[in-house]
């Protein structure tokens, strides 16, 4: 039994036998023959264990301990008649036989194995459920009998080498100690952590003399006051707005003092800013009691008044989705708090918070952020138990935690564990014993704690923030509590959980239980405890009276980093996007040079030399070069650029190569980091390019969050294929498209979605243009489908060259990346040039405008299909117009162009099926333009693929047949 579990012995700590074994390895004859025989019979595992253990520090009185010999004592001569392990006479040391020595050694090993089992499994026996409904059976690994102990061994002293703070202890004392440490109101999971320092730190924090927070009288009273505020606020709302949905915190009120402890202790450890994300449950309580949002403002919103000033437009959102910010002072440490607005999609806010934290850390530091900056800005995510276990964005966001381009130095996760998901009990909502199993994937420590023990919760919160600040890693606090009111305040939870809610009806509140505890301890009197409640209720009454006349006097959406920006205007909004020719050539030289000392792939060298020719002639600027020019000119102008997504360094289609990889060493060289020589480096902003993991939702949410905190950078996310954006639809629907309207939060995020029908099948053709157009409204973003590198360059620079910010969705090309016609002259990037919403054809040999019989309007790659087919047919009386920007729809620009062709009919041509693409969006809008003109065409006709359930054909032959058919329809005038 000893040798089978010797690895457990090693993890448990050294015993005295290690010293003897070290002597044995040096000289087997230096130890008594009985010990020599014992060591010789050990298996390989035991040898490894004993070989790795360093000699223990031995107390001088050890020989006096019953059953534990002094290993430094010289072995005495064997007693007459005694037999050793090899049949020889056994030695006697200080009157103790080898059998006694061996028993003592086995006792130590077994005891340490038992202690280690409690470290690993003790949480399974912890008393975590305030309702007492969870029945936990004894775990066999926590039973001393599993290690060979009997009841007769309970009071025999055992040497455990200062483990649990005791040099020796009886088995009874050991079991009592580990049960108090690991099986009380706190259950800890940390033995899955591979880093020895982190594991040792937690073990010492849990088992050592600092295993409890020293609560002062003032500290205890503060916890009671915060519980009274959390409970009182919910009860007041229930009284005044009975049955109104608020998704209250009742049953989990202890979350409030837990957050307060994170702020207080975090401030002592360098915290300057906390970015908070949470779903709707308990949000109003956090807004009021943590974020210090005025109670009268919240009551005013319950009365139907707007959360923002009357002159601020937008659809708004329900009360329990709104965010806010505030400054709080803790012992002289001012901490800025921001609660991120988010929808009911539970965990969707997680990556958004992570991105905001990263941006704020970069603002305080360099790139990448320093550890000091990471200590100053922390993300705090509050989760529900069912959501943490069930929502895929949880592991996707955890995945980012240690990656170079996304690391924030650790998020603190608090799970308000109501032990239910809507109406689903845990045994039907997850497969593991806890909702936190997924956090083990990143080796985060997990603290489970009984929510009806406020001091245990605050203690764990303190440990959590200390761990985060020391190791800059994620940490999870699982507060096991309950949900007093059901899923919402109009719900009847007993429909589905009758036994749970019978227990809840009889369960005193956490505040009541804690007040009773403090009264028994003499910390407060019963009258003082009651006064805390009544005084808070009186304050709420006063706030309620003030709420009837309360009006917000300003919105906070253009403060801090957003100062100087404004709401979007109704003019052409082109911005100044051209750069000087000198700057273009300077950037061109940097991005086309073959760097010295770098073994560049020969194929990339050919591309670089092709770029050199472009800048020498000023002709043939392709898509990737135009993009690099946009990035490089912005960098020199002091605008940071961040590009993230799957394979963005090289580019999915091997076109970008903004990161050159040395073919010998794999060292990376980024040309855009070397536009200016080192002595002028201060004039060049940072360029980040990060190949992301295979996650769309988390990475896109992260980049969106980054833009919420940093409006003065060009931030781009690129899908590997546009179709892959499907995986991030929640982020698009709930945040990017509607965040400004719902929450008054601007974003300048740019999304690059490769889109185009080239016979690659249904999964690699469409970025679902129709979905984005359907989401378009209230000037919420910009959707473009550019056909020239120059227009792409200008639309990128436009993102940061105006006084407002809007998300930009670019339907970017695939085949056009190398299309011989899809090039621009360098002159199109300078002078007075800018982005064109509508492009007409220049330099094409057509009849005079009055004789044009048809105008084909299109967008994106299909223009080149139309152009080449028209050339093949030799048609001169068909003009093609390109809608480069689909939203906001360029009504006036299109009107100017269509007015040139009074005698033409009008056709909309697209390569997507009729029920997809832009047709349903542009149909009536083009009709409106024609109506304004009094044009004879009346409304456009359609040329394109027929309706389809699938985005594209799976066979190239069919694809080509469909292409030929609709091109013929577009170019054949009856």
Textual characterization of the structure:
By secondary structure, the chain is of the alpha/beta class. It folds into 4 domains: 3-174, no CATH class; 217-553, Rossmann fold, CATH 3.40.50; 581-829, Rossmann fold (3-Layer(aba) Sandwich); 846-971, Multifunctional 2-oxoglutarate metabolism enzyme, C-terminal domain (Rossmann fold, 3-Layer(aba) Sandwich). It has 32 helices and 24 strands. An 8-stranded mixed β-sheet has the order 3-9-10-8-7-4-6-5, sandwiched between helices. The longest helix has 24 residues, at 98-121. The model is unreliable at 1-15 and 51-94 (pLDDT under 50).
List the topology elements.
Blueprint (H helix, E strand, L loop, with lengths): L5 H7 L4 H10 L6 H8 L3 H9 L45 H24 L35 E3 L8 E3 H12 L3 E4 L6 H12 L9 H24 L14 H14 L4 E6 L4 H7 L5 H8 L21 E7 L2 E7 L9 H15 L7 H6 E8 H6 L2 H7 L11 E7 L8 H4 L16 E5 L3 H18 L3 E6 L17 H8 L4 H12 L4 H22 L33 H12 L9 H16 L5 H14 L4 E5 L14 E2 L6 E2 L17 E5 L5 H13 L4 E5 L10 H8 L2 H5 L6 E5 L14 H6 L7 E3 L4 H10 L9 E5 L25 E2 L14 E5 L3 H12 L4 E6 L1 E3 L3 H8 L6 E9 L5 H15 L7 E5 L10 H16 L3
Parallel strand pairs: 4-6, 4-7, 7-8, 8-10, 9-10, 11-14, 11-15, 15-16, 16-18, 17-18, 20-21, 20-23, 23-24
Antiparallel strand pairs: 1-2, 3-9, 5-6, 12-13, 17-22, 19-21
Q: What's this model, at a glance?
A:
This protein is an alpha/beta fold.
CATH class of the largest domain: Alpha Beta
Strand order of the largest sheet: 3-9-10-8-7-4-6-5
Mean pLDDT: 88
Strand content: 5-15%
Q: Termini separation (Å)?
A: 93 Å
- Poorly predicted regions are 1-15, 51-94
Structural class category: alpha/beta
By DSSP (H or I, 4+ residues per run), the number of helices equals 32
């Amino acid at each position: 039994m000893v040798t089978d579990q010797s690895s457990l012995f090693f993890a448990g700590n050294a015993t005295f036998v290690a010293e003897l074994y070290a002597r044995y390895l040096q000289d087997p004859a230096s130890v008594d023959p009985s010990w020599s025989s014992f060591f010789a019979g050990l298996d390989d595992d035991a040898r490894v264990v004993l070989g790795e253990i360093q000699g223990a520090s031995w107390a001088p009185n050890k020989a006096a301990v019953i059953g534990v010999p002094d290993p430094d004592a010289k072995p005495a001569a064997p007693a007459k008649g005694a037999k050793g392990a090899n049949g020889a006479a056994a030695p006697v040391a200080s009157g103790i036989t080898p059998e006694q020595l061996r028993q003592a050694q086995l006792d130590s090993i077994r005891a340490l194995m038992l202690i280690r089992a409690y470290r690993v499994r003790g949480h399974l026996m912890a008393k975590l459920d305030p309702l007492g409904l969870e029945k936990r059976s004894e775990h066999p690994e926590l039973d001393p009998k599993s290690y060979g102990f009997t009841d007769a061994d309970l009071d025999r002293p055992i040497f455990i080498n200062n483990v649990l703070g005791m040099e020796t202890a009886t088995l009874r004392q050991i079991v009592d100690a580990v049960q108090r440490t690991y099986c009380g109101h706190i259950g800890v999971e940390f033995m899955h952590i591979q880093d020895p320092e982190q594991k040792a730190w937690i073990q010492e924090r849990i088992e050592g003399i600092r295993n409890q927070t020293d609560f002062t009288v003032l500290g205890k009273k503060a916890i009671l006051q915060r519980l009274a505020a959390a409970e009182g606020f919910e009860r007041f709302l229930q009284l005044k707005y009975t049955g109104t949905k608020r998704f209250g915190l009742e049953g989990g009120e202890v979350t409030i003092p837990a957050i307060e402890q994170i702020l207080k202790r975090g401030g002592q450890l360098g915290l300057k800013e906390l970015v908070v994300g949470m779903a709707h449950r308990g949000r109003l309580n956090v807004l009021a009691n943590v974020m210090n949002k005025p109670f009268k403002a919240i009551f005013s919103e319950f009365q139907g008044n707007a959360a923002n000033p009357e002159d601020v437009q937008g659809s708004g959102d329900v009360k329990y989705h709104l965010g806010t910010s505030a400054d709080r002072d803790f012992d002289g440490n001012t901490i800025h708090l921001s609660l991120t607005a988010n929808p009911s999609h539970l965990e969707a806010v997680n990556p958004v918070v992570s991105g905001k934290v990263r941006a704020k850390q970069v603002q305080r530091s360099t790139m990448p952020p320093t550890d000091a900056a990471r200590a100053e800005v922390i993300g705090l995510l509050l989760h529900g138990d069912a959501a943490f276990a069930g929502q895929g964005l949880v592991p996707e966001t955890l995945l980012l935690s240690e990656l170079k381009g996304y690391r924030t130095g650790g998020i603190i996760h608090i799970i308000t564990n109501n032990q239910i998901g809507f109406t689903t009990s845990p045994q039907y909502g997850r497969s593991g014993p806890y909702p936190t199993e997924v956090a083990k994937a990143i080796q985060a420590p997990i603290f489970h704690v009984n929510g009806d023990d406020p001091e245990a919760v605050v203690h764990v919160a303190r440990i959590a923030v200390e761990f985060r600040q020391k190791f800059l890693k994620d940490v999870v606090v699982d507060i096991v509590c309950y949900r007093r009111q059901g899923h919402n305040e109009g719900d009847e939870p007993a429909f589905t959980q009758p036994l749970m809610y019978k227990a809840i009806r009889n369960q005193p509140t956490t505040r009541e239980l804690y007040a009773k505890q403090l009264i028994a301890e003499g910390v407060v009197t019963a009258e003082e405890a009651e006064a805390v409640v009544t005084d808070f209720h009186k304050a709420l009454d006063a706030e309620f009276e003030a709420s009837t006349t309360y009006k917000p006097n300003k919105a906070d959406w253009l403060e801090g980093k957003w100062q100087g920006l404004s709401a979007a205007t109704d003019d052409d909004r082109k911005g100044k996007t051209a750069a000087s020719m000198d700057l273009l050539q300077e950037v061109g030289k940097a991005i086309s040079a073959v760097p010295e000392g770098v073994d560049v792939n020969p194929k990339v060298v050919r591309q670089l030399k092709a770029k050199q020719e472009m800048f020498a002639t000023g002709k043939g600027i392709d898509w990737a070069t135009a993009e690099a020019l946009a990035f490089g000119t912005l960098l020199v102008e002091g605008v940071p650029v961040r590009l993230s997504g799957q394979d963005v360094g090289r580019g999915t289609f091997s076109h970008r190569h903004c990161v050159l990889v040395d073919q010998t060493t794999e060292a990376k060289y980024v040309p855009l980091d070397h536009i200016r020589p080192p002595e002028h480096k201060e004039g060049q902003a940072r360029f980040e390019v990060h190949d992301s993991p295979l996650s769309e939702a988390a990475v896109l949410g992260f980049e969106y969050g980054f833009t919420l905190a940093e409006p003065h950078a060009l931030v781009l996310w690129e899908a590997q294929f546009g179709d892959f954006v499907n995986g991030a639809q929640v982020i698009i629907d709930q945040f990017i498209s509607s965040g400004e309207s719902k929450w008054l939060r601007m974003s300048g995020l740019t999304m690059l979605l490769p889109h185009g029908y080239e016979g690659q099948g249904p999964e690699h053709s469409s970025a679902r243009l129709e979905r984005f157009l359907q989401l378009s409204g209230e000037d919420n973003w910009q959707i473009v489908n550019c056909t020239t590198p120059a227009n792409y360059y200008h639309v990128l620079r436009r993102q940061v060259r105006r006084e407002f910010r809007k998300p930009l969705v670019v339907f970017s090309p695939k085949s056009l990346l190398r299309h011989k016609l899809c090039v621009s002259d360098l002159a199109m990037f300078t002078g007075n040039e800018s982005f064109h919403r509508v492009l007409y054809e220049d330099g094409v040999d057509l009849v005079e405008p009055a004789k044009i019989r048809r105008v084909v309007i299109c967008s994106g790659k299909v223009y080149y299909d139309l152009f080449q087919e028209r050339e093949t047919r030799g048609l001169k009386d068909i003009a093609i117009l390109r809608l480069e920007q689909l939203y906001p729809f360029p009504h006036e620009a299109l009107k100017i162009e269509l007015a040139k062709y009074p005698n033409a009919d009008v056709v909309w041509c697209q390569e997507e099926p009729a029920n997809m693409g832009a047709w349903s969006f542009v149909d009536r809008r083009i009709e409106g333009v024609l109506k304004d003109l009094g044009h004879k065409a009346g409304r456009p006709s359609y040329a394109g693929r027929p309706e389809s359930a699938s985005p594209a054909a799976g066979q190239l032959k069919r694809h080509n047949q469909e292409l030929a058919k609709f091109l013929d329809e577009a170019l054949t005038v009856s």
